[in-house]
Design goal:
The protein is an alpha+beta fold and about 375 residues long. Helix content is about 55%, strand content about 15%. The strands form two sheets. Strands 4-5-6-7-8-9-10-11-12-13 form a ten-stranded antiparallel beta barrel, surrounded by five helices. It has a two-stranded antiparallel sheet with strand order 2-3. Helix 4 runs antiparallel to helix 6 and helix 10 packs across helix 11. It starts with a strand and ends in a 7-residue tail after the last helix.
């Protein structure tokens, strides 16, 4: 990951050398940054320059292929019990190959932690499935209706539970430059957002779903921490609704070709409306993803996956991740050296496994 300064100072190297004093070669014209703690915060001497921090996805197709093959074989041979270890190993590889600001992420989760969550998640989903089949099991129409209602509300309530637990675990087990992420959201507040969003989306025949998605993302982003930094989301439901509406209206007239524009618009909407705050200083995420990027990666992945009878899938997955990540930048007065650890440990992976079973991804 490369950090690009947008300042124009220091263009003439010889002139800079003349301006250096005898104090360990420090440039007298450059501001000195002091990140010592004072009154619970961090301050600087001089203006912090605006820098651009780039993201980059490394990853090797053969390495990823070998990891997935071993995971698949051991999962089958163990009748599925190895799956938590396989998932932990996959996440550890993906995070370790993702770079930001010159440093790579680290995933610290273990198979043992995820196995415990795996068992709890299976038990919880099995209980909900049992409720949904009460009528079939007992032959009672009354129990069928009651069971169906309990199943519906059970699924509606388990999603915020999975999101909350999954975010707490994933963030706690992710670090960058040795600083762990954290999630400070409250389950009750998330329940309120989800119940309201589910019900209004049903009553409005799906129209409110765009506003629901924005409310959910804003709440989760605002509660994500990287030490003394936090994210926020500034998108509006109306903008997302327009993107989704165009995606639906233009899909059939263009025989699906507009899908490439839809993917680009949706990706850039989410990233371009994400900001990071550090001690009150705002930095902006930007995505330069183009329709051409989406078209090339999608078409090549599609044909090579078919031609190789699916063996190209690991390379296709890495190319999709690289397409998104390599086009992300953070621009602003973000100072990595001033990030300090503030978050506590959290080792319950139940939410993480529930998200995986429900096929709900955390687009970290």
């Amino acid at each position: 990951m490369e950090v690009i300064s947008t300042n124009n100072e220091g263009e003439d190297e010889n002139k800079n050398n003349e301006n250096r004093n005898d104090n360990n070669g420090i440039n007298a014209n450059e501001p000195v940054y002091d990140f010592s703690k004072e009154q619970g915060g961090y301050y600087n001497q001089g203006e912090i320059p605006i820098n651009v921090f780039e993201a980059k996805m490394h990853g090797d197709g053969w390495q990823y292929f070998s990891i997935l093959i071993v995971n698949w074989v051991l999962t089958v041979l163990s009748l599925g019990f190895y799956y938590p270890w396989a998932r932990a190993k996959t996440l550890r590889y993906i995070y370790g190959e993702t770079e930001f600001g010159g440093s790579r992420f680290t995933f610290h989760g273990t198979g043992k932690e995820m196995f415990k969550g795996f068992i709890k998640a299976i038990a919880l989903l099995a209980g909900i499935a049992l409720l949904g089949n009460l009528g079939r099991i007992t032959g009672s129409l009354t129990l069928a209706v009651v069971g169906g209602l309990l199943y519906f509300f059970g699924i509606m309530l388990i999603i915020p539970l999975a999101l909350h637990g999954g975010m707490r675990y994933r963030m706690s087990r992710t670090s960058w430059r040795g600083i762990h992420f954290g999630y400070r959201g409250k389950l009750g507040e998330l329940f309120g957002i989800c119940v309201k969003g589910f019900l209004l989306s049903v009553f409005t025949l799906g129209i409110y779903s765009s506003w629901f998605a924005v409310d959910l993302r804003r709440y989760m982003h605002s509660n994500m921490r990287l030490g003394n930094c936090h994210l926020d989301f500034e998108g509006q439901g109306g903008s997302l609704f327009w993107i989704n509406l165009k995606g639906v209206l233009l899909f059939y007239p263009t025989l699906g070709i507009y899908t490439f524009w839809y993917i680009k618009n949706l990706n850039n909407y989410y990233i371009n409306n994400t900001v990071l705050y550090q001690d009150g200083r705002k930095s902006q995420f930007n995505s330069s993803l183009t329709v051409g990027n989406v078209f090339e990666v999608t078409i090549v992945n599609f044909f090579l996956t078919i031609v190789t009878f699916g063996l190209y899938m690991p390379w296709a997955m890495l190319r999709e991740m690289r397409m998104v990540i390599d086009n992300v930048q953070l621009e602003g007065q973000f100072v990595p050296e001033a990030v300090v650890q503030t978050e506590e440990n959290y080792a319950d992976a139940t939410g993480e496994d529930l998200l995986d079973m429900l096929d709900i991804g955390l687009d970290f």
